[in-house]
From TrEMBL:
Xref: CDD domains: LDLa (cd00112), MAM (cd06263)
Protein name (Swiss-Prot/TrEMBL): MAM domain-containing protein
Record keywords: Disulfide bond
Gene3D superfamilies noted in UniProt: 2.60.120.200, Low-density Lipoprotein Receptor (4.10.400.10)
GO cellular component labels: membrane
Positions of transmembrane segments: none
Length: 351
């Protein structure tokens, strides 16, 4: 309970506790009474996924749910010392990796109560970066609120950020791993808590875009997505990345008579008799991918399965397509349609 006339929380055992220590997934009182009155907090311990948070769609390795027993890299336990409890980690092996984790949309804060965000982070290298920011429009710059500084290495640290905003906002946690060849280099985050001052907007609401970005948005719209970039600008614009976490995006499996089709499935739910990977390319058994397997082709030894993108408009010098694949005793080809005719020009083929 909150003591009258103070800013302290009164533990059941009589110990006073600062309010920003309440409902932070740590027993600060010693009798766990500070972890009981949490119904008006929005909290996520990552045991059941990302809760109300989302991860930016990307073809890079992103934030991955794991626990201390599922990897040879630290941390080997969550911030409370539990080896079986889950957290999110960002790991690099060869290439640089970065990923954004986004909160739901929150309403403007009032003058009395700030939106307080509490979380824990872990670092095992100094070349990575972890940043927490605020975004008030879908295309606005991210306002930096906090960035990791020199602190403990190979240990969990607690962070508290207080936010005042006169506009609707979204909290962005950005992790970046610099290319390295050392083992056991990782950034991890655990147990995020949003205080009652973080007032959630309706679940179907999103951040509005700034009017000044109209011309920029035209370069990459749903009608001409994926491959379009400005012919006056040599830089490539990745218009749509699809990780298959939220469906097929703009890809479709072509179903023809006597043919087989690609199937969207969660990695751990693929039939046991199939030889497909038990994790997606990021190592997550909760991740999704599209696949075609031996059982499907048993009666169609020469069958073909087509996975078609939406129409791509390459207005510049060319298009860039990036994807991950796994195959066994089969042939994978990438080709082109031109005016609805499948051309026998294969851009990529592997056996």
């Amino acid at each position: 309970a909150v003591q009258q006339g103070t800013e302290d929380f009164q533990c059941d055992n009589g110990v006073p506790l600062p309010l920003d220590n309440v409902c932070d997934f740590t027993d600060q009182c010693g009798d766990n009474s500070d972890e009981q009155p949490c119904s008006n907090y929005e909290r996520c311990d990552f045991e059941d996924g990302l809760c109300t948070m989302t991860q930016d769609q990307s073809l890079q390795l992103g934030w991955t749910k794991r626990n201390g027993m599922s990897d040879t890299s630290p941390p080997f336990y969550d911030h409370n010392g539990d080896m079986s409890a889950h957290f999110l980690s960002l790991v690099t092996r060869l290439d640089s990796t970065s990923s954004n984790l986004r909160s739901r949309i929150f309403l403007p804060t009032n003058k009395q109560n700030a939106c307080q965000v509490t979380f824990y982070h872990f670092f095992s290298q100094v070349s990575g970066k972890l940043m927490v920011g605020l975004q008030t429009a879908c295309d606005s710059a991210i306002q930096h609120l906090w960035q990791n500084t020199a602190g403990l290495k190979d240990a969990w640290e607690r962070n508290v950020i207080k936010i005042h905003s006169s506009q609707r906002f979204q909290i962005v946690i950005h992790g970046q791993m610099i290319s390295a060849h050392e083992q056991n280099e990782v950034i991890a985050i655990d147990d995020i808590s949003f205080s009652p001052g973080c007032l959630p907007a309706n679940t179907d609401e999103s951040l509005q875009c700034q009017e000044t970005s109209n011309t920029k948005q035209e370069l990459c719209n749903p009608d001409t997505n994926l491959c379009q970039f400005d012919s006056t600008d040599g830089g490539l614009r990745l218009c749509q990345a699809c990780g298959f976490e939220f469906g097929m995006c703009d890809w479709s499996s072509e179903v023809s008579a006597g043919q087989i089709s690609w199937t969207l499935t969660k990695a751990r739910e693929v039939p046991a008799l199939e030889s497909t990977p038990r994790q997606d390319q990021s190592g997550d058994d909760e991740g999704y991918y599209v696949w075609i397997g031996a059982k499907q082709t048993f009666n169609h030894l020469d069958s073909k399965a087509y996975l078609n993108s939406s129409v791509c408009h390459c207005l510049g010098k060319g298009c860039h397509l990036q994807f991950y694949y796994s195959l066994e005793e089969s042939v994978l080809r990438v080709g082109l349609y031109n005016n609805k005719v499948r051309r026998h020009l294969y851009l990529f083929q592997i056996h």
